Write a sequence for this structure.
């Protein structure tokens, strides 16, 4: 499959699809093969590591957390930045970060496709570093956003999960749409953003969150919870509401 190429001012965006379907952990008498997209986090358990998957299943790996991180870097290469070490006890998938509570020493991860939340404990120092690393990613001259076509209202997209849905007190969306569209679900779709600071590239993916009326990308229904690539200029429809994906130049204050 040839990656779809997008342009944002003077740099190009390539949507990266891994050629590898699995990552392998082998140690002495152990052999474990898993899709990296199915991994939520790794947690240290003494000299061992517990791997938690999107299915909520756990697998004990007979190797320490440092060895696990070494395997991720070796087998995933530059794409190992999907994961981040949090203190001595955790390795997490960064796009699943939902909330960082430094004072409570709590980190919450969420799987958007099935609305499963994982509350993890980490030191204040580790969470401060994690928060700082997340904030660094947005100090560039461009950002990505959705623009609602009818009202022209814009919604900035952050690294990781961007949940969209109808405004409601019960909604867990960080982007609640208040335009009277009763065909939009309270939790309708999610956009995952990866930003590469060195190259200035944005990698974007969208998934439907089991919405009642479905999510459409360029008039094509997104089937199930499978991630689909996004490009600037794409049109997303949720209920009766349409959005366009834009790259916004902060210095020129114009969308491209």
């Amino acid at each position: 499959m040839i990656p779809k190429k997008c342009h944002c001012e003077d740099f190009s965006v390539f949507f990266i699809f891994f050629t590898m379907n699995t990552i392998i952990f082998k140690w002495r008498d152990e052999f474990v093969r898993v899709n990296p997209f199915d991994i939520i986090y790794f947690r240290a358990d003494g000299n061992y590591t517990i791997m938690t998957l999107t299915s909520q299943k756990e697998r004990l790996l007979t190797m320490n957390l440092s060895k696990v991180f070494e395997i991720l870097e070796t087998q995933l290469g530059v794409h190992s930045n999907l994961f981040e070490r949090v203190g001595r006890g955790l390795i997490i998938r960064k796009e699943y970060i939902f909330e960082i509570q430094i004072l409570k020493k709590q980190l919450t991860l969420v799987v958007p496709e099935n609305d499963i939340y994982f509350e993890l404990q980490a030191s204040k120092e580790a969470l401060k570093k994690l928060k700082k690393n997340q904030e660094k990613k947005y100090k560039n001259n461009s950002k990505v956003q959705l623009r609602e076509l009818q009202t022209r209202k814009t919604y900035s997209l952050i690294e990781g999960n961007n949940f969209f849905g109808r405004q409601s007190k019960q909604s867990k969306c960080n982007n609640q749409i208040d335009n009277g569209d009763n065909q939009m679900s309270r939790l309708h779709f999610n956009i995952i953003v990866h930003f590469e600071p060195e190259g200035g590239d944005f990698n974007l993916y969208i998934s439907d969150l089991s919405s009642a009326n479905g999510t459409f990308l360029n008039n094509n229904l997104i089937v199930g919870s499978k991630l689909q690539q996004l490009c600037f200029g794409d049109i997303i429809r949720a209920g009766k509401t349409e959005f366009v994906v834009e790259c916004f130049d902060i210095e020129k204050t114009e969308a491209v």
Summary: Residues 102 and 134 are 14 Å apart (CA to CA). The helical segments are 65-76, 124-136. The longest helix spans residues 124-136. The longest strand covers residues 241-249.
